Amino acid sequence: xxxxxxxxxxxxxxxxxxxxxxxxxxxxxxxxxxxxxxxxxxxxxxxxxxxxxxxxxxxxxxxxxxxxxxxxxxxxxxxxxxxxxxxxxxxxxxxxxxxxxxxxxxxxxxxxxxxxxxxxxxxxxxxxxxxxxxxxxxxxxxxxxxxxxxxxxxxxxxxxxxxxxxxxxxxxxxxxxxxxxxxxxxxxxxxxxxxxxxxxxxxxxxxxxxxxxxxxxxxxxxxxxxxxxxxxxxxxxxxxxxxxxxxxxxxxxxxxxxx
Length: 259
Prior knowledge:
Elements (H helix, E strand, L loop, with lengths): L9 H9 L13 H4 L10 H29 L12 H11 L24 H13 L4 H41 L3 H27 L5 H13 L2 H6 L24
């Protein structure tokens, strides 16, 4: 203590301010275990340490805010199930993605503009629903895929119809040119032969497919009809079974009938 009553710490203060204390500078006032801390040694003056502390505090607060935001997002986050994940875990993941509870809950359905004369495969739709539900497809994606597929089916159906109509027109024109005034009579003979050997089912198939107007098939059945006796044709005798049915003399060949 000096004559003014002050304690004798002027040596420490002087060391900190004048670079004394064995070169420790301001760190000479710190406990011995901190004086040689490598991190603190990078700050030449106390003000540098203070500035660094304030900067770190600001960054820490910003980080706390970001962590809080991330925690909020994580509550609704989706994590891909592992390859060996349980079915329940995988199902929960699919449901969060937007998969309906059951296959029949998918919102897509038969297109409203589906042609009335074009068969709609309901069995395929059921199978498609079950498959996409099994693999976890969301409702929106499922609807887009089904719409795309329906468009392809419709486009193909239009092409098939155009091809069928072309076959009908071309075949009928060719046979009309060949048979001339015998056309109607020969068509009846052809239709009777088809009925006798294939029945209504074959007649319907040939008509719907467009093959009923194929010149090769038409002339083949016409020759068969000519080879059969008039009595057999008149009585409705079925050559493939040898049994009597209703008379088929009034039958015509739908594909070949004049419009």
